[in-house]
Amino acid sequence: SFESLSEGLQAALWELGGVPHAHQTDRLTAAVQKSLLPDEFTQRYQALLKHYGMEGRKTQAASPNENGDIEQSNYRFKRALKQALLLRGSSDFADLASYKLFLKELFARLNSGRKERFQEEQRNLQSLPEQRLESCKRLWVSVGPSSTIRVNHNVYSVESRLIGETMEVRLYADHLDLYYGQKCVDTLPRLRGEKRYLINYRHMIDQLERKPGAFENYRYREEMFPGSYFRLAYDELKKRHTPQQATKEYLKILRMAAKESETAVATALSELCGRQPITACAVEEILHAQQRPPLCAGVRIAQVDLAAYDRLLQKEEASYAS
After folding, report:
1. Distance (Å, rounded) from C-alpha 273 to C-alpha 282?
2. How would you class 271 by CB atoms within 10 Å of its CB: exposed for 0-12, middle for 13-18, buried for 19 or more?
3. What whole-number distance in Å separates Cα of residue 229 and Cα of residue 156?
4. How far is CA 132 from CA 10, 11, 79, 129, 179, in A?
5. Among 140, 144, 154, 260, fewest CB within 10 Å belongs to which?
6. Helix orientation angle between 280-291 and 243-259, rounded to the nearest 10 degrees
7. Could you count the other beta carbons within 10 Å of the beta carbon of residue 59?
8. pTM for this model (two decimals)
9. Residue 180 gets which letter from DSSP?
10. Residue 230: burial class (beta carbons within 10 Å; 0-12, 13-18, 19+)
11. Measured distance CA(22)–CA(58) in Å, rounded
12. What is the pLDDT of residues 205-216, one digit of tens each?
């Protein structure tokens, strides 16, 4: 995406502390127009080049050798990364920030022998502008009757109170910021590709409770089971009740997960499965038992012996007399 290109390029320029005279791309569709105008850059890419005062260049079609140095550097880095992960003993990281720190340290080691050459190049760099360009695309979308919005051919759910309203979407490389009334109301991860969807059952529960009959054939029904115990509970309810009764009972359970605690409801369902019939009332009783504060231990306060103060005063008088 252009957002990825813009964010990555700008991060590199500010890391370098200067701007080269040209930037060459391997015909990314985010930078180079499609077949109708093969010799022109996209409007957004031209604006990015103009902001930094760079000349735009592109490789010829089907000629990766023209970026041979970059391709080779990329290959060597991937190989070094694979070896570093093998030495580390695991490819698992606690979070994205930890992985980024690992990559930054690897970059520093790989570039440690290039300091002198970099200093020579740095003297030829142009000055940076006063500030970066915003690396996002702004869109205005309407919230449909199903409490969803469509962004770049993908579907996202939003709060049901926004149905019929218009929202501003700021589309970044890896996430979306949703604005309503000049206030950021939600941040969602960006979906890759097209015809995909990101549905949050918390956004849908109000509508589904008003129209429970639509649940059985609901397009995003699978997203309404936030865990395996929720699916087991729904299957058990269908065995014991009519489809309509089972749906109503399950939606009550789902509402408790949305409004109170998904983890607590899942724990309650795990306790009920295979032991007693699952009902919304049974789940609610377990939740209340978990939330009930423990009884305070009895505190016994001994009777104060005031005579102790008299004896203390008598000792002080005796010591003064002596």
Report:
1. 11
2. middle
3. 25
4. 7, 9, 32, 7, 22
5. 140
6. 20
7. 16
8. 0.73
9. E
10. buried
11. 10
12. 988 888 888 888
